[in-house]
Amino acid sequence: MTDASAPDPSPPRGTITVLGTGRVTDTPDEAEVQLGVQVVRPSVGEARDEATARLAQVLEALRGIGLPERDLRTSQLSVGPHHEYPPEGGQRFAGYEVINRVAVTVRALDRLPAVVDDAIEAGATTLDGVQFRLSAPEKHERQALAAAVADARARADGLADAAGQRITGVRSITEQARTGPGPMRMARMEVMAADTQVLPGSTETTATVSVVFSVEPVTHGGQADRGRRSRAVSRS
To answer: Which of 32, 111, 121, 216 is 20 to 30 A distant from 201 in Cα terms?
Structure first.
């Protein structure tokens, strides 16, 4: 029996560290619209009252097409002096400005044109863009991570084969970065004509991982094989 305390004749196992990247592309299935009213009047009270009345009409129109309360959220409410800047220079006080905006979540994209058009027809004066997104991003993140690990293994196999090594296991996996599916924002838009068309396009989720693989030399009856046999005898 081989002495267990004797030095192991096999070479120390090495490692290969590689980065893997995975990407998952899909079509967004929901959107968030920022819309509201912006009013300037001589007094704060007048501006506030008109903005409140206009926004109430907008919200009534949105509820009328079936949007639930949970999908309507105030995103901005501000009151302040409004100044104009004439061509001759300087600034001139022009009254008080009230801005009241709501974030509207649209969970069925085929209803998005109606949301935009009905809100504008009801009195909305600003539309500050549309963000397209995925309602369940976690699924796409897991898929991207799995693809990143598979990519890392393929890269490691190529490196190991070129160096006369073979992969024997995984020492560690570290997530380096994950991006998306971030919101896809349309540029700020002013009041537009009816029959608005919106195109969600596609969104990409990306994940990057660093994987440390264990490797050993590929031999045929050489020193590494003898070392493995020696360890097996020692354990017996």
So the answer is: 121
